[in-house]
Amino acid sequence: MRLIRSCLIFLALTTPANADKLFLTTEVYPPYNVQASDGSVRGVYFDQLKIVLEQTKTDYEVTVMPWARAIALATTQPMHCVFATARTPERENLFKWVAPIHTDRNVLVARRKANIQAATLEDAKKYRVGTQRGDYTEALLQKLGFPQVDVGADFEITFHKLAAGRIDLMPMSESTFKSLPADTFSEVITLARQQLGLACNKSVPDEIIARLQTRLDQLIADGTQQKIFDRYDLISP
Q1: Torsion angle of alpha carbons 122, 66, 211, 197, nearest 10°?
Q2: Considering the domain boundaries, does residue 236 fall inside one?
Q3: What does the DSSP assignment read for 180-200?
Q4: Is 200:95 a contact under the CB 8 Å cutoff?
Q5: Quick check: 191 and 108 in contact, CB under 8 A?
Q6: CA 222 → CA 44, 47, 217, 225, distances in Å?
Q7: Is it the case that residue 128 has pLDDT exceeding 90?
Q8: Domain shared by 143 and 183, yes or no
Q9: How far apart are the first and last CA of the chain?
Q10: CATH number of the domain where residue 47 is located
């Protein structure tokens, strides 16, 4: 009896109290993710995920941090997920996916007064391009052979470099670009079109992924996702 009791105590101590709790990480990236003064998160992406998580009764917590750290945690730590992550071929088998949260057109943006023009991506390669560490555009720019890629810690740092003229071009979502002052910034050329989703560590049980995906599919089918897009004046895919 003492042996059984000891074993039960050991199991209680070694079994995580929140074994099915998801730890979500993300970055500040208006209008997709915005962090309020009280630390809460809202925006196009999380407004969808909050419905999906709460209506499936999934325990979770969400933390805002630089993108490189956010995606690193989802890659290496059990029960961690990161959003919204570009679902590239290189990442497909690294995670379990709940998608699509959005389909994005990513554009290269310049300061209007710089008068930068590029008819092709090859033309754009002569300029200095900035992006954030760990973002899919970092790998994409390298893959496409852009020789001058400046990598910052997060979106805000890179954007400040663009505004200050320290870089010539910056990739960003079309909807983010549309929110910028039209007399200050201009779209130069499309860099990529990409589906985005919730990317989860492979330790997350398949049944959790399945129920989240089912609820997201319903969100899309019943028009709720589109209503969220409309609320933020987001360009639909």
Answers
A1: -10
A2: no
A3: S-TTTEEEEEEEEEEEEEEEE
A4: yes
A5: yes
A6: 17, 15, 9, 8
A7: yes
A8: yes
A9: 63
A10: 3.40.190.10
